[in-house]
Amino acid sequence: MDRSEVPAVTSSENESGASRRQFVRRVVAAGGATALAACLDGQGRDALDAPPGSDPETLPDRQHAWNQTLPTDSDGTVGRASHHVFLRLALTSAPNRTDRERVEAALRSVERALEWGPDGVLFTLGYTPAYFNRYEQSIDAVDLPDPDPITAITAESRIDVDDGDAMLHLASEDPAVVLAVEEALFGENDSLNGHDVGETLAPVFERTNRRTGFVGSGLPADRQTGLDGVPEGEPVPEEAPFFMGFRSGFRKSQATEDRVTIRSGPFAGGTTQHFESIELNLDIWFDDNDHEQRVARMFSPEHAAEEAVGTVGERLGAATGATDVTDDIHDHAREHGTVGHAQKLAQAREDGEPVLLRRDVNTTEGDAAGLQFLSLQRRMSEFTAAREAMLGERFHQYGLGPRQPNGILQYIRVRSWGSYLIPPRGSRALPRPSQ
Ligand code: HEM
Fold first, then answer.
1. Ligand 1 center to residue 431 CA distance, Å?
2. How many CA atoms lie less than 13 Å away from 296 in the CB half-sphere?
């Protein structure tokens, strides 16, 4: 992994307010010992002061059981931890028993050192179809085909498909925590939050790609200046948690953790994960559309006409009302020349209930505004059906191609794509297909 391309961080940037938040983004994006030291205001790695962990045996069986630890608003919408690191991992050799023990011991060290939750750390370790392909036996019990990008624009040839072995997703409210955990897991620090770290992942895995993300009201607005694809005039509203300017992940448009959990077979208690990195073209999103048009494209023309959304989604409660306008979608395409993203995606529900649990976050990778889109679902086919609904090919008949107001297709470019099995905690260390 090459850290030479990341911007250097200097302590003079380590000030207060917005510049402090920009500084934090840069250090999390940079990673490494210098970034961690800078994040801890130069007080040294031992200055990390996070709530201590617990006995790993007491943690939930599901690696993806994050919701009960996350804050919930008055509508029951679950919040997200602010800082994220996504590490693609490749095995250094064929996995054996010692490697399994090492991986498990390393992850347990983190759990003992830090509280399982946003004030400490949340993480999942997932495995690609390519990882399982090394075994003779297939993972029939899990719906996890090889990753095959679904995109609207065929010119998206730069999609980097994950053909490595695994992905580690780290999340915390504290940027220093995600950096410190990464350091400890890869042998760059033998202590974490005052606890000794014994085994590490370093002999087993190498990091082949490192992506970062952040989410929260005010953060995209703080970070919009000077990014590629963001027009002048700071168009991202101050309160928006995401770069396109709207809230997302309302309680009633998210699947529950139960709904995304695999029910039977060797990986019962696990889930599947889709992860894609998207670059946003906010130049045209903000310059070519007024607020009403943005609401129509993101939600539906009816949401726009009724001013149902507000500036960033504050008029919506627990639900977006997208299911109320799914039956009108062809009329909207014909009469308004627009269909909404949420309106299209609500068609992928099952019996009116969402099947995807989205945990997407913003990114400024490559100094461009983007989204790290992550969703959990019981079966990858449920993700595929939703992503195909997003393509909206059935609206081509109304002249709504991928460069027309067919949801938000026009403003996004897919840059990377991967699929993973997130096993239950008990089999997260280099699982075999049959366990
Ligand atoms: C830049 C990219 C994207 C942005 C800014 C975005 C934003 C949003 C927003 C604002 C909503 C409505 C609020 C909510 O229900 O949470 C929504 C709904 C949704 N989006 Fe996206 N989204 C993006 C990409 C994707 C992708 C790649 C998928 C993959 C399938 C997806 C799947 C969904 C689903 C399933 C819903 C809920 C629909 C329902 O109500 O059942 N989104 N999105």
1. 31
2. 19
Closest-CA residue, ligand 1 atom 29, reads 387
Atom of ligand 1 nearest to the CA of 250: 16
The number of the ligand 1 atom at minimal distance from the alpha carbon of 342 is 18
Pocket test for ligand 1, best of 150, 253, 277, 284 (most atoms within 8 A of CB): 253
Q: Is the CB of 37 under 6 A from ligand 1?
A: no
Q: Given this model, what pLDDT does residue 13 score?
A: 46
Domain presence at residue 433: no
User: Which regions of the chain are under pLDDT 50?
Assistant: 2-14
Question: Would you say 49 and 112 are in contact if contact means Cβ atoms under 8 Å apart?
Answer: no
The angle, 0 to 180 degrees and rounded to 10, between the axes of the packed helices 175-185 and 97-113 is: 150
Q: Whose CA is nearest to atom 15 of ligand 1?
A: 253
Using alpha carbons, list the distances in angstroms from residue 196 to 175, 184, 192.
20, 9, 6
| pLDDT for res 39 | 85
Alpha-carbon distance 247 to 78, whole Å? 12
pLDDT at position 2 is 44
Total domains in the chain come to: 1
CA angle 251, 256, 259 (to 5 degrees): 145
| Token representation of residue 250 | 């309302």
Calculate how far, in angstroms, residue 111's C-alpha sits from the geometric centre of ligand 1: 32
The C-alpha R_g of the chain, in whole angstroms, comes to 21
Check residue 1 and give its pLDDT: 54
pLDDT of residue 154: 56
Residue 5 maps to a domain: no
Place of tokens 């969703």: 375
Per the domain annotation, does 435 fall within a domain?
no
Looking from the CA of residue 280, the nearest atom of ligand 1 is 1
Q: Is residue 434 part of a domain?
A: no
Residue 69's domain comprises 11-427
